[in-house]
Amino acid sequence: MTQGLRVAVAGAGAFGLACALELARSGAQVSVHDPAPPGENASSVAAGMIAPVSEALTDESARPHFDLLLAASELWPAFAAEIGLSLDGKGAVLLGDEARLAGLAAGLAVLGRPARRLASAELPDFPGGYAEGLEGLAVPEDWRIDASALFQMGVAAQGRGVILSAEPPDLHRIDRLVVATGWSPDAAGLAPELKVLSPIKGHILRLPHLDYAGPAVRGPGAYAVPSELGLLIGATMEAGHGEAVVDPQVARDLAARAAAIFPGIADQPWIAAAGVRAATPDGLPMVGESAADGVILAAGARRNGWLLAPMVGRVVADIALGRDAGVWAKWLDPRRFDA
User: Fold this and answer.
1) SS3 call for 319
2) 72 and 106 in one domain?
3) In terms of domains, do 329 and 203 share one?
4) Are 195 and 315 a contacting pair, CB within 8 Å?
């Protein structure tokens, strides 16, 4: 059954809206439910990285999943074009000294990706420049989407007939429930598989008075990216912290690490924001059928929610509509954590 299938999506982050868009495109009747005001979820406190190569190089837990991350990124151009999103294709630059760049170049070789070295004079123009001795590696396959895309995805979803609501769904009037919520200590009440999730808090800094229009620049301990809100500096990964409240000391420490890489920002005012994501033991989200009747999961994004969103939306829609969900669905299957 496709036409007339009634699906409620719990959560209006990148996963939830991507699921809603794919389901509505296939003819389902879709509603999205989230009590948080727009812009106040973890997907909004993000740099919008669509960066499979950089993630595999700099995040040990992402390395085994490189092929999946790369396949997910390849869905983005068509997904963005279909709903009118602007995809930043300027790539990324990894910063470091000679030793760090040699290690990163070796990692690129293992991944089968080319490494183009950038001398200090070839680095992107950045407000106030870079710390002495830093050079770079260009990573053209890494892209970005501005976090403001969340609003545009919501508008596109409404254009396809999706109903957005701050109220909980009426479970007696739907055929399927998609759980695309972030971290909640009560999540296991929706589906037993969610008990394996743990919180990871992240801080990001916004420097509204600095303009930067180049690629993402990722140094040891901090990165910088452009955004509609000004320069963004990120990010922290605080495992086990489940409150989306700014910790002033953590924010100051992030600012200090960033200033060591980008000295021109040292005296600039910043605004800190914090978000909490849910993480699975292996770093990939749980996407697929739950043991709970009628429930499909799309949760546990950790730090690659934006990158994985179109793939997650497609897998969820395929499962809900009884279609073949493809090879990557096995990697994301919530049952992989069964004892």
Assistant:
1) helix
2) no
3) no
4) no
For residues 183 and 271, membership in a common domain is answered with no
Find the helix or strand (DSSP H, E) in which 313 lies: helix 305-320
Query: Which CB contacts under 8 angstroms, 24+ apart, belong to 335-339?
Result: 335/193, 335/288, 336/282, 337/193, 337/196, 337/280, 337/281, 337/286
Residue 68 has pLDDT above 60, yes or no: yes
Residue ending a domain, among 254, 279, 304, is: 279
Give strand ranges (E) for 99-253: 116-118, 135-139, 143-145, 163-165, 176-179, 198-207, 216-219, 222-225, 231-234, 238-239
Whole-angstrom distance between the N-terminal and C-terminal Cα of the chain? Answer: 33
Q: How far apart are CA 94 and CA 223, in angstroms?
A: 9
pLDDT at 190: 85
Q: What is the mean pLDDT of the chain?
A: 94
Domain that holds residue 4: 1-89+145-195+282-339
Beta pairing partners, 198: 279
- Rounded distance between C-alpha atoms, residue 103 and residue 132, angstroms: 19
The whole-model pTM stands at 0.95
Q: pLDDT (tens digit, 9 = 90+) per residue, 198-256?
A: 999 999 999 999 999 999 999 999 999 999 889 999 989 999 999 999 999 999 999 99
State both tokens at 174.
Answer: 């739907």
Please indicate, yes or no, whether residues 43 and 131 belong to a single structural domain of this protein: no
User: What CATH number corresponds to the domain at position 152?
Assistant: 3.50.50.60
Structural domain tally of the chain?
Answer: 2
Instruction: Identify whether the C-beta of residue 109 lies closer than 8 Å to the C-beta of residue 137.
Output: no
The total number of residues shown for the chain amounts to: 339
68 & 27 share domain: yes
Provide CB contacts within 8 A for 85, sequence distance 6+. Answer: 79, 145, 149, 152, 153
Tokens of 241: 């912290």
Please identify which residue in the block is written with the tokens 């990573």: 139
User: How many of the other CB atoms lie within 10 Å of CB of 253?
Assistant: 15
